[in-house]
Specification:
Elements: H1 9-35, E1 38-47, E2 52-61, E3 68-76, E4 81-84, E5 98-99, E6 104-112, E7 117-125, E8 139-147, E9 168-173, E10 178-183, E11 195-203, E12 214-224, E13 230-234, E14 242-248, E15 280-281, E16 286-289, E17 298-303, E18 309-315, E19 324-329, E20 335-340, E21 344-351, E22 359-363, E23 366-373, E24 385-390, E25 394-401, E26 408-414, E27 417-423, E28 427-434, E29 440-445, E30 450-455, H2 480-484, E31 497-501
Parallel strand pairs: 9-15
Antiparallel strand pairs: 1-2, 2-6, 3-5, 3-7, 4-6, 7-8, 9-10, 10-13, 11-12, 11-14, 14-16, 17-18, 18-21, 19-20, 19-22, 22-23, 24-25, 25-28, 26-27, 26-29, 29-30, 30-31
């Protein structure tokens, strides 16, 4: 029986060829899959309205000649990744979206604000026309992880601002007593919270800071809160030295009075460098000024019949808040200093008669308004009286000065002789002339601007005119004022008549 000779060379060659062929097919089939892929990148933002992080994923097709189709999308965190299409809302899933040749698509994913990292895995396939179920298209599976927490958690933007964190801005005009305060930003204060601010003005002793200071008028206070995000404040400012402050807080923060070594506003003044005043931007919220003292110094004068002047000093005007030291000066170097407290008056400063010819009242070395005066004889002062005693040989004249009057100079003139006397208050002075041919004597009181003519008419001397009683005393012309003032005396001694008149001589005969 013929037995063919078996050889393994051919079967091995066939097997080798088959193996090589199948291996080549596998290589060919795998090569497209390894060449096709997608590139994934991601950017992240924070949505302050919701407190979510918003990731924009970009998937790029690496193939210039083939369109890719996203066949699978896996996200971690597992929230939807929605397609971003121009002109449409991102509502469609990224899965199933074609990627143009060498093009890209974008998807948006929202994740919680505290998310630290996110990963997107994309599966894609490159289908060709005529592909059958027996021929699988090239595919790829790529992923990308991005870190989200580098800038901290994403929190929703606040809908209001807490009063303890709020910032403000302000304006301030101290001389006018006006200010405004405005809440900074667009958010109101939270809930029922309120922040008060107050504007207050003071009386001050000087135009620079000094104490004590007293609140003038009523401070103006208002709050920011709710829908009220800006306020206007206004106070009256005294017409004198003042301080005006814009402070943090309500009227319970107002200090009245401001005294030496007492509390101060410090950094509560808006615009200060310290807190809380520095939480408001704007000019310094304080002012010191004014061009006159917060006092009302006044003086009135009253002349007395004895030549003295009583000066009444007062400090009781509407702006009198501080003591006033007055100086009353008279002639010949006389002066006296008097301090009058606010709201008070002094009526006891008397300038002696010998110094009352020129008086000045000064405050801080300056004569106050209506602060000059000189003694004037009061209209109700009793005048000196003149009496006469006439005989056939002598003509005697006597001047009497009442108590409480000034010393008075009297000039007696008869014929060609004149005698002068100074008559002290409460005393008399007499002059006797030898009887002559002159019918009258002249008595002058030059300091009172008065003259008196006394008619010499003794009875029984053989002279003319004696023996008849005067019919009465006519009062006419400019002498009426002096007569009505009590300046006339009628004496029956020796039938002598006399009358006093201001710069007017009146001659009477018996």
């Amino acid at each position: 029986m013929f037995r063919p000779k078996l050889s393994l060379r051919r079967p091995l060659a066939v097997l080798a060829a088959a193996i090589i062929g199948s291996t080549g097919a596998a290589v060919v089939a795998a090569t497209p899959a390894s060449a096709h892929h997608t590139t994934i990148t991601g950017t992240v933002d924070c949505d302050r309205l919701t407190g979510e992080r918003v990731i924009t994923w970009t998937v790029v097709n690496s193939e210039r000649g083939k369109t890719a189709t996203i066949t699978g999308v896996t996200a971690d965190p597992a929230t939807p990744v929605l397609l971003v299409a121009e002109g449409t809302d991102a509502t469609a899933e990224l899965k199933g979206t074609p990627i143009p040749k060498a093009g890209q698509v974008q998807g948006v994913q929202r994740v919680p604000g505290e998310t630290q990292r996110a990963t997107l895995t994309v599966e894609a396939a490159w289908f060709q026309k005529g592909d059958s179920q027996r021929k699988k298209p090239p595919t790829s599976k790529d992923h990308k992880t991005i870190e989200l927490g580098a800038d901290g958690a994403c929190a929703p933007a606040p809908k209001c601002v807490d009063a303890s964190d709020a910032r403000y801005s302000h304006t301030f005009d101290g001389p006018k007593g006006t200010a405004t305060v405005k809440l900074a930003g667009d958010l109101p204060l939270c809930g029922e919270e309120k922040q008060y601010f107050t504007l207050v003005s003071y009386f001050a002793p000087r135009p620079q800071f000094a104490t004590p200071q007293y609140v003038y008028g009523t401070p103006d206070s208002d709050f920011l809160g709710g829908t009220q995000t800006e306020i206007e404040l206004k106070v009256d400012v005294p017409d004198c030295h003042t301080q005006v402050d814009l402070i943090w807080g309500g009227v319970d923060e107002v200090i009245d009075p401001l005294v030496e070594n007492g509390p101060r506003y410090g950094s509560k003044k808006l615009g200060d460098r310290g807190a809380p005043g520095n939480r408001s931007t704007g000019p310094q919220g304080w002012y010191n000024g004014g061009d006159k003292n917060c006092t009302t110094p006044a003086a009135t004068f009253a002349s007395a019949c004895d030549g003295t002047v009583t000066v009444s000093l007062s400090n009781d005007g509407s702006i009198s808040k501080y003591p006033v030291e007055f100086e009353v000066r008279g002639e010949n170097g006389w002066s006296e200093k008097v301090t009058v407290e606010p709201g008070k008056a002094n009526n006891e400063t008397v300038v002696p008669a010998e110094h009352a010819g020129a008086i000045e009242v000064l405050v801080d070395g300056k004569v106050i308004d209506n602060g000059t005066y000189k003694w004037e004889r009061p209209e109700d002062c009793p005048l000196p009286t003149i009496t006469a005693d006439a005989t056939c040989e002598t003509f005697a004249l006597t001047a009497s000065n009442p108590e409480g009057a000034q010393p008075v100079k009297v000039d007696f003139t008869y014929g060609d002789k004149t005698e002068s006397r100074t008559v002290k208050p409460g005393s008399s002075e007499s002059v006797t002339f030898p009887a002559g041919d002159d019918e009258a004597a002249l008595v002058a009181l030059p300091e009172l601007d008065l003259e008196l003519e006394v008619v010499y008419a003794p009875e029984g001397c053989g002279g003319g005119g004696g023996g008849e009683e005067p019919p009465g005393l006519p009062v006419t012309g400019v002498a009426a004022g002096g007569i009505a003032a009590g300046a006339i005396v009628l004496l029956a001694v020796g039938a002598v008549l006399f009358v006093m008149a201001r710069r007017r001589r009146i001659h009477f005969t018996a």
